Amino acid sequence: MGETMINRKTILRDVVFLMVGNLLVVSAVRFFILPFNILSGGVAGLAVALTPLLPFSIATDTLINIIILGTFVLGALFLGKKFAMKTMFSSIIYPIYLELLLLIEFDITLDPLLASLYAGIIFGVGLGLVFRTGASTGGMDIPPLIIHKFTGIKVATLVMIVDGLTILLGFTAYGLEAVLIGLISVFSTTYTINKVLVFGGIKAKTVFIISSYYLDILDEIHKRLDRGSTVIEATGGFTGDERPVILSVIFSNQYPQLQQLVQEIDPNAFLIVSDATEVKGEGFNTGYRI
Fold first, then answer.
1. Does the reported pTM lie above 0.90?
2. What pLDDT, on the 0 to 100 scale, is given for residue 207?
3. Residue 80 region, left (φ>0) first, then alpha (ψ -120 to 50), else beta?
4. Mind listing the pLDDT tens digit for each residue in 11-24?
5. For the chain, where do the domains classified as CATH 3.30.70.120 start and end?
6. Which of 107, 150, 254, 287 is 20 to 30 A distant from 177 in Cα terms?
């Protein structure tokens, strides 16, 4: 029963994310990319870049739908049935959203730089929500997902590369200025996707501590911070001496306290600190957020 409820909640969350994510993507296309001919990434950007280069006349929104269909077939072939089912949902509602939003009168004057920036931000939030469901909008984010499957390269990085190539495609028709404006959209999209994908994760820090007084430091970490730790047996590369290393993951707002207690015990202790964007397990699965 409990597992059924969890599955239902997951399905409901995915549907909401897909609905909202696609609406945001299409909104970026309708209100920023198409009206201002922004050479952005994605299906809309590719359609804008290709339209003047094709030997026949075709409406940009029609070309968008054709590209979505083609990329969906690629996704179904390379990314599996489950992905295809979720992406089919996006492939259906994307053109519906686009046709509905095209009915809205929209005529404003806006600096192309601002149009490109906000197109990228809204586009990135939408794509990030869709990616969190394990699906795609059925457009030019499918090639990056296919490449990611075989190479392991970050999806956001691949999206930036594919979008960058899409923008360069429009250089001959639109010129250098349009390309430079379009790159603003690409970078803002990539940045926003990364933020959305890690949004809601616990903000924590991974800390490595090397000290001769490691036992005292361990004791204080357990008592004062109520955090766990692991002792890693290591050997000094220069001296050859054995040097136990403390590994601990703490909440970000606990770091000043950790720094203080280490300083009190051993001012010469060596600390290595990095951000942990996702932490799961005992002590970090209570829903606590910083």
1. no
2. 92
3. left
4. 888 889 889 999 99
5. 204-276
6. 107
